[in-house]
Amino acid sequence: MNEFKSGVVTGTGAAINIELGWIPDYVKVVNITDADQIDEWFNGMAAGTSIQTNAAVATRATNGISAYAGTLGDKKKGFTIGSGISESAKELRWFAIRGED
User: Fold this and answer.
1) Which residue has the higher pLDDT, 70 or 83?
2) Which of 5, 52, 55 lies closest to 25 in space, CA to CA?
């Protein structure tokens, strides 16, 4: 089953959980307010990391993106936008893709 979801959140300066009902294979988060940062995460990357592009330079970020497993028995799986991305009062657009199981 292939799935795609997208949305927008406002950064808080702290980590933000995005509940999808599944753990994504790919996530992209873009700071729309400043248009100065793009973070990408692929399933299998270390928790809290992302490939971060800003000012035309790609680097490996910390406090980036992680898979979010929810709590035992619920269906609130998804991903976490880490504090390194969640800049306070900034609009963050995201999309997540899940490939076939």
Assistant:
1) 83
2) 5
Q: How many angstroms separate the Cα of 51 from the Cα of each of 45, 54, 58?
A: 10, 10, 7
Q: Which residue in this structure is represented by tokens 């609130």?
A: 76
Q: What is the CA radius of gyration of the chain?
A: 13
Place of tokens 């800049």: 87
| DSSP category for residue 14 | S
Q: Evaluate if residue 1 carries a pLDDT over 90.
A: no
3-state secondary structure 52-78: EEECCEEEEEEEEEEEECCCCCCCCCE
- Considering only CA atoms, which of 19, 18, 59, 20 is closest in space to residue 39? 59
pLDDT tens per residue across span 22-71:
999 999 999 999 988 999 999 999 999 999 998 777 777 788 999 998 87
Q: Which two tokens stand for residue 45?
A: 């990357």
Alpha-carbon dihedral of residues 57, 67, 26, 62, nearest 10 degrees?
0
